[in-house]
Amino acid sequence: MMEKKKNPVIEIVVYDSDNNIISNAKVILIPLEKPHLKLHLAYDKSSKSYKTNETDFVKYNIKVNSDNFKQDEREIKIDPTKDFKDIFILGKDVQPFFYRGKVKVPFTPRNDLLAASMNSSIPTNQKNALIGHVSKFDLENVPVSKAIMDNNVMVFKIKSKDVAENVNKRLKIHEELSKNKTVEFVGPILRMDEKSLSFLTNQIVVQFKKDINDEEITTLIKKYNLDIVNNIQYAKNKTYLLSTRKEATYEMLEICEQMVQSGKVEYAEPDIFSTVEEDSINPTDLLYSQQWHLSIVNTSKAWSILNDINPNITFGSSNMIIAVMDSGIDSTHPDLNGTVTNGSQKIYQLFDFVNMVSDNNSLAGDHGTCCAGVSTGNTNNNSIVSGENEGIVGAAGNCRLMGLRRGGPETKYADAYMWAAGFDPNSTIPGFPTAINPGADIITNSFGFSVGMPISGLMNDTFDFLTDNGRNGKGTLLFFSAGNANTDFTLQRPWAAYERTFAIASSSLADDGSTEVRSTYSNFGGTGIIDVCAPSNDEFPTVHNPPLNYAVITTTITGSGNLIGHTGGGLDYKNNFGGTSSATPLSAGIGALVLSANPDLTWLEVKNILRDTAVKIDSTNIDSIGRWIDINGNPTSDISYEGPDYSRWYGFGRVDAEKAVQVARDKLSIKQIRVTISTGNINAASTDGKIFVGLGGREFRLDKPGNQFERGNTDTFIVGDGSNIENPNRNDLPTTNGTQDSPKITYYDVINFPKYIRFEPQNDGDNWNVDHVNVTTIPETKIFQGPNPEGNIWLGKISGLFLGLR
Questions:
Q1: Which residue among 99, 463, 650, 778 sits deepest, i.e. has the most Cβ atoms within 10 Å of its Cβ?
Q2: Is residue 33 exposed (0-12), middle (13-18) or buried (19+ Cβ within 10 Å)?
Q3: How many C-beta neighbours within 10 Å does residue 215 have?
Q4: What angle do CA 338, 477, 665 make, to 5 degrees?
Q5: CA distance 515 to 549
Q6: DSSP string for residues in 340-377
Q7: Average of pLDDT values for 169-191?
Q8: pLDDT digits over 626-661, tens only?
Q9: Is the dihedral of CA 626, 630, 632, 637 positive or negative?
Q10: What are phi and psi of 644, to 5 degrees?
Q11: Which residue has the higher pLDDT, 747 or 128?
């Protein structure tokens, strides 16, 4: 029995002009071939869209309407092999609209406002002079946010209502403002909020349909008194940037609408000026805004980098496991349980090495719960209150958690570390847990053991084994606190001082709320080397009360804290945590973000990345202990001093999550390059010449058995893992077992070196027509395409041998 062909799904999302979903709209699908057949799409609550798979035709008209909104409709064409998704934005009857592609965007005009972009090269004093200059035109400066000002945009208000409502008078002001040499663009505002705004320029972008000839294009352009500014050759079809010959006004949007209604254009849209809203990742957990320590180490920017790699690892990889060796954790805490993005339980393992039971029901205080929250407290997790997310944010909130209650003699600690890392220590301790797989990638330890003495041979060997063999030979990351006694930590924290662990000191903020300084209690380096410091509380005891005092807000045993995590919630959080006990799990969480970006890094590579990217805070201090020395050991007072390298207070600096994650990402080895090339379906498009892809500073020959680059054909070539090219040894070096190694390039190489296709003709008359190129990598960097998303270009001795990829 033949399986019924699956129809593509049509999915329509309907918004109002404030970007709220409209769930009670009427969405009607009408086949153009049979307009008497009308299909009403049902609203799907889970996807917040209107859906159907009853798609027996190719072309449809969609009508969308809702009470109190203006109806909109649009023709669509369905690809039978793909699902179709589109959006509609409904406005009120009185609202005009502008086009973005084929979508109408309603807006509320502000006739009393004008936006102006300033020339960034103009000195600030000249920009300020403009404010005084415009006053004679009945304008006043409108204060805007720093985010808008940083984009060199100013907003002016027309004070007179009579002038604002008179088009000619507005244009006169507009013209005068445009004459000022500090101004680049002036136009009426389409949208504005605290962080960004968009306004009209006097230009529009028009793409004509394929069957419209040059004469018709010229006629239509002249009809609306437009000038051709540019022929946009990398866009589809015949696309032009056109100027209206006069100042930008809302009335120019009518030209766009009329051109669309002519049936001769694919789209006609204003060329708008928008300020950039930087996309740092900001969680919505209730207490996040008070977690000052995260902003200092740039976690939000690190999360943005991870989000660009893969949205599922934005807040850390769900395959990454952080073990907290401490007093145990409150496994019922809402910010420490639930699931991560791969569907696994947040808590991976629990074990109490005091009572030798596989739970953390008997806690030795809240210290471990506090540390767990700092390192990997959940991110953007819902509370029981609708619209409110719970509590705090950990540095790596999407990583899994292992809660361990420590205790016993050193041998038990050694066995416990081995077990936590996924090894079977063959322990003779009664009740010792069976081996787990996988083990923890990172173990954070905010305590001192064998205080006042050097590290034992056992722990030396234990840590050597874990760093040599953990994580499948890449090494488990072991983070240890330096301690809080304002003394040399070498013997106070011998495990922290061991060369294969990560020793973490503490920094904080001065009373001005911005200057980074040493936490007065933090132990410092001596023979033992502090690796990095991380922000924590400024003194003991204290609660978070800026700018007088700074402390860390984190999870605590449910009901035992002094802060709620949602409206009406219990006291499950505290604002008086700190010490190197907090700095250490914060650093461990950042280590987890680094490994999330690049799981192939060894423990030593991670250590070096954290050191090399750390920020040299308090670089001018002259304290005999805390002062910085250069790479040659010269202090700041030495005439030969070459700049800060190491401080006994701060180690190699204050940890920076953003820079560390970026470096880790850049070191990613590219395992596979996949190149898909479509040869044009036109006469003489094919070639027998040689084709190469340039990527990451190397070139790779694209050939495989059979014929390629034939007219109308699409060919896919794989370099590296799964290679299908005919002579991979031309591109990749064989390994000892005869298989092909990776392409020997990194993420950094791919991003920073030119991307191109090179054609080597078989003879002088050989030409090749390229319709489309798509290059992807594993791990994914970006998708590189050419010559444009859809289109073709000739390569040859005359037309050129290189095609750049975007």
A1: 650
A2: exposed
A3: 8
A4: 80
A5: 13
A6: -TTS-BSEEEEEETTTTBSS--S-S-SHHHHHHHHHH-
A7: 81
A8: 999 998 888 888 888 888 999 999 999 999 999 999
A9: negative
A10: -65, 135
A11: 747
